[in-house]
Specification:
Organism: Oncorhynchus kisutch
Order of helices and strands: HHHHEEHEHEEEEE
CATH superfamily of the domain at 177-300: Mannose-Binding Protein A, subunit A
Helix content: 40-55%
Strand content: 5-15%
Protein name: C-type lectin domain family 4 member E-like
Largest sheet: 8 strands, mixed
GO molecular function: carbohydrate binding
Pfam family, one: Lectin_C
CATH class of the domain at 177-300: Alpha Beta
Keywords: Coiled coil, Disulfide bond, Lectin, Membrane, Transmembrane, Transmembrane helix
Number of strands: 8
Structural class: alpha+beta
CATH architecture of the domain at 177-300: Roll
Number of helices: 6
Amino acid sequence: MSEGVYGNSDGVEDDEPDAMKNTDIDGQLYANVKAFKPRPRDGVVASVHVQWWRRPSGVAAVCLGLLCVLLLAGIIGLSVYYGVIGHHNSTERNQLQTSNNNLTKERDQLQTSYNTLTKERDQLQTSYNTLTKERDQLQTSYNTLTKERDQLQTSYNTLTKERDQLTNCKQTCPEGWQKFESSWYFLSTETKTWKESREDCLKRGAHLVIINSDKEQEFLFKLKKRVWIGLTDSVSEGTWKWVDGTPLTTPRYWNDNQPDSGDPSGEEDCVEIHKDWIFPLKAWNDMPCYWKLNWICEKVV
């Protein structure tokens, strides 16, 4: 079998004698194996040796190498990327820090300005409140002074009118007479009974005074005399009439509890203005007609 295998390995017959083959078979086998070179057959190329990269271990080594290269490239790329990103972030962080510092400084300045403005506003509000209070006080004082001025103006006008009346009276009134509104008044300097006083007024072309208004009553009261006026109930007890026959209606200026007709005989039939009572519109008092008092005559202009 060995002979067949190795004898045909060269594709030619061995011309050596059999004795040589038997004695040196081992050497021949070694020589034949060493010298063996397979011949190519038709359509087939044979090779004893296989390229290293086609071996499984070679493929693994190639893949591992490529993986290392890719990993190294990735690491380098990431290092470059993160280096750039880090530099960019550092620059941006510094810019943000600068912006933050600027904004903080501006905020502090704005806070200071706000506090200052708030303080000024409070001061202005206090000043405003003070001025408003002073204005109200001045307005009150102004209103008071205006009212007093109007009162003084009224008093001035009244006094001016009275002065003019007195001036006119001096020129036109008989001696002892004084003018008030549309009438002249004569105040006696002596005292007489009510009847005698009435007769005296008639002699002067006048009559005992007939009172028609509060102003006239106040004017007569200011004369500060106990004087007869032209009011009596001597004709019919309790029916009071003026000397011109006009019944007493209004106004009435009786003092409290007046008229009281005096004692039970009812002799208080004539009326006086009593100077010692407090209220000018409550100054009438009925008296006995025989009493002697001053009197007032009235003459309508």
